[in-house]
Every structure is written in structure tokens, then in C-alpha cells.
Amino acid sequence: MFHQYLKIGDMAKMNHTTVPTLRLYDRIGLLTPSHVDADTGYRYYDVKQNARFDMIQYMQELGMQLREIKKVLDREDLDFVESVLIQKEKKTAEEIEQLTIQQDAIRQAVRNIERYKKSPKSGTFTLEYISQRSIYAINTDVNFYDHDLDTYELILKQLKSDLIANHLASVYYCNAGTIMPKENFEKLDFISNRIFVFADSHFPSSDTQYLPEGMYACIYCDSFSSEKQYAEELKKICEQKGYCIAGDYICEVLIEFNVFHTEERSMFLRLQVPVSFSK
Predict the structure, then answer these.
(1) In terms of Cα–Cα distance, which of 83, 16, 10 is closest to 42?
(2) Residues forming a β-bridge with 46
(3) Cys staple from 238: which of 232, 243, 274, 276, with CB 3.0 to 4.6 Å?
(4) In the chain, what is the straight-line distance between the N-terminal and C-terminal CA atoms, in Å?
């Protein structure tokens, strides 16, 4: 049977905590020793104070900060406790959503690396079935193809600012692609001012558009500066094979290698256009 009073060390050991933790609780008025010896200054806890310690620990497990716990316990108001926990639940749900978005982004980044490692070399032509993709796109006030990489960097910042202004997670700001209207691609008239990023299931559906599923003629490219050359090659191959251009031309950034020392973005691209076939 325990003694009624416990030294601070015994109280800490009984509750699987530390003496500094109990001293902190005492200092902020969260859990004050039941008795302090006037001669020695030793702190003693009533064994029944374990109930309050358990409540503090329980509230911490619920994600509450010490200042919140003290406020709740000082009020001794059950309705107030309920309101605090409701707010805590809302905040926790928001944090879970953000962590889920982050986790999915990490998984996608890993998939992109694996995909790159298995991708064909630059200049390779392929015919691929690509499923429907969800995108978030904006129009810029300049034609990408009239400018150099410096201007492209400014356009990317415009996209990032748009995402932030619309309270969208900045994790989506990666592997930005561009879209050229079908009629421009058919004439090799390099005019485009539409830039996009891929959206996932967490993205507000009201803000997204779709790239249609279907067969795509694709060519791989390892340089921003080589896009025009390879886009022209893509159109030439489509003509040689008798493919009909069925939609807008897309420059998709499969992966960026900006972790390395370089003065410009190092990108691996999949240039693509939907095609149909004559019967």
C-alpha cells in the first residue's frame, strides 16, 4: 500500500515521467505539490493527485498544449472542455489532410523517379495509351516560345503566386507543363500561353480541368532548349505514320533534377499529342 504523500521523485517514477516535467507543471500552476516542507523545501504529492496527472497526460494525447490544458482545468466547465475538444478535432482533421497531401506528393515524386529511370532516351518516339489526367491551368500574358528560360522562370513564379492566392498547397507546384492549341501545333506555329500542374483527388474539383484519355504520340526530350526541335520531329513522325492530330499538344515535365548544381532547370520531358487513326 502506498503512503499518502509521495516525494517528487517517487511521483515521477510512478507516472513514468521526469522530475523536471513535474517541476514545470508546478511552475506554471498545472500540478502543484500538495505539501512543501517548510524546513527542507521538499515537495510532496498526495497520491490522489495522480488523477489530475492522468488527466493532463490524457489531454496531451488528444493533442492539447499545456497552456490549453491549464485553461481547461482552471475553468472546471464541462461545456468549455467540449468546445475546446471540438476545435481541436477540426484542427487535427486539417493537419491530417495536409499530411495526406504531403504523403501523396512524396509517393508521386518516388514514382516519377522510377518512371524516369525506366524511360527511353531522348529522341525516342512512342505510341502510348494515357488515362485521363486532372490539371490546374492558368493563362499567362506572354507566349512561352517568344522568350528564353529566364522568362519561363518568371512565368513559373506567376503560377506559384496563383496557387498561393487560391490557398492551394504549394506542394502542387512542381513539374509544370505547357499546352499548345491543336491548330498551332499542326502549323508548327509555336504560340502558347497556357501552363499547368497536375492535380490529385485532394485538389478542389471546381478548379480543375481534364486532359482526355486516349492514344498519344509521344517523343522524349531531355532539354528545355530542345523542345521545338523534338516537337517538329513529333509532328513529322505523325504525318509519316498517317496519324490524325486529335487534340492539343502537351509538354509534360516528367521530372526535374534541380537537386544538382546547375544554373537552369534540368528537366526530362514527354512531348505528346493525342492522335486518331484512319480506318
Answers:
(1) 10
(2) 5
(3) 243
(4) 91
